[in-house]
């Protein structure tokens, strides 16, 4: 089990990815995102996750630059948006993201959503494989892919995705997907681990939090890690950024892990990837 913020999981190509990072979904471009990235890095975070559609890649890049931490100590992820999918457009989108971030290479590049047309994400994947083979990105993966979409992608892929970043929390435990990814050597990563804050008032988790003398958020984030799921909670407040990462000094019992998993309702805050096509048809 990870013992500190610096601890990493090893992806199937040997690249080390931190178990814990900062997500910046809906964090405003400009000073808000710059300050939250700097606060995270200052307090030991090494992984930052953004996306083209978040429209804050420049601020993330600025925060990285101002952090004073060497580039090779950081793990930076961004994602290609739906409207840019396809071979040539993906290569172009990558260059745009890289230049906004002010970086020479990426640590992880993801397809943001599968969309409803698998031939489209296969073309996108070919472009991402090229970037990987050219050494422009150290690891490649997908986001929001169900098992059947992963199987479809892998069928024609030269390089298997190293990561699948999905909505994952105690109301959406994704057991089948987690088991499949683990059997295929694909690292599962959780976005919206706190269900956008909706889980913070859950009585069961609150009761467990009291028992361990931890916050509800810390219990959920620890549950992620013990499920061997990389997690990237979002916060713009420094004290919360520090608190979220204070999850390495305790361990949930098997019984408490089960109690939390038992809260599953297969309930999402985001769209179901089988139905989500925004940005593809524009």
From TrEMBL:
Matching entries from Gene3D superfamilies are given as: NADP-dependent oxidoreductase domain
Report any Pfam family annotated for this entry. Answer: Aldo_ket_red
Domain of life, source organism? Bacteria
Q: Where are the transmembrane segments?
A: none
* Residues in NADP-dependent oxidoreductase domain copies: 31-264
Q: Which InterPro entries match?
A: AKR, AKR5G, Aldo/ket_reductase_CS, NAD(P)_OxRdtase_dom_sf, NADP_OxRdtase_dom
Renumbered to this chain, region (Disordered) spans 263-282
Q: Which SUPFAM superfamilies match?
A: NAD(P)-linked oxidoreductase
Q: Which UniProt keywords apply?
A: NADP, Oxidoreductase
The UniProt entry's sequence similarity note says: Belongs to the aldo/keto reductase family.
Q: What is this protein called?
A: Aldo/keto reductase
What's the source species' lineage? Bacteria, Bacillati, Bacillota, Bacilli, Bacillales
């Amino acid at each position: 089990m990870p013992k500190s913020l610096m601890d990493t999981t090893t992806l199937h190509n040997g690249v080390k990815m931190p178990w814990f990072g900062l997500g910046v979904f809906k964090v405003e471009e400009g000073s808000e995102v710059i300050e939250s990235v700097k606060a995270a890095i200052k307090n030991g975070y090494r992984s930052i996750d953004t996306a083209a559609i978040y429209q804050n890649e420049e601020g993330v890049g600025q925060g990285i630059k101002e952090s004073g931490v060497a580039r090779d100590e950081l793990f930076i992820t961004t994602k290609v948006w739906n409207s840019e999918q396809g071979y040539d457009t993906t290569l172009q989108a990558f260059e745009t993201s890289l230049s906004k971030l002010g970086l020479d290479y990426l640590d992880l590049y993801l397809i943001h959503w599968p969309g409803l047309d698998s031939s489209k994400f296969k073309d996108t994947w070919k472009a991402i494989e090229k970037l990987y083979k050219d050494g422009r990105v150290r690891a490649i993966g997908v986001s929001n892919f169900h098992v059947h979409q992963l199987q479809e992608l892998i069928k024609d892929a030269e390089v298997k995705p190293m990561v699948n970043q999905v909505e994952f929390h105690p109301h959406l435990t994704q057991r089948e997907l987690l088991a499949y990814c683990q059997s295929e050597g694909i690292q599962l990563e959780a976005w919206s681990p706190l269900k956008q804050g909706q889980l913070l008032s859950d009585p069961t988790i609150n009761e467990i939090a009291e028992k361990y003398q931890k916050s509800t958020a810390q219990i959920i984030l620890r549950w992620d890690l013990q499920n061997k799921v990389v997690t990237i909670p979002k916060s713009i407040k420094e004290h919360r950024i520090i608190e979220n990462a204070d999850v390495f000094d305790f361990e949930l019992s098997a019984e408490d892990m089960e109690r939390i998993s038992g809260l599953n309702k297969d309930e999402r805050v985001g769209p179901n990837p089988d139905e989500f096509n925004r940005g593809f048809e524009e």
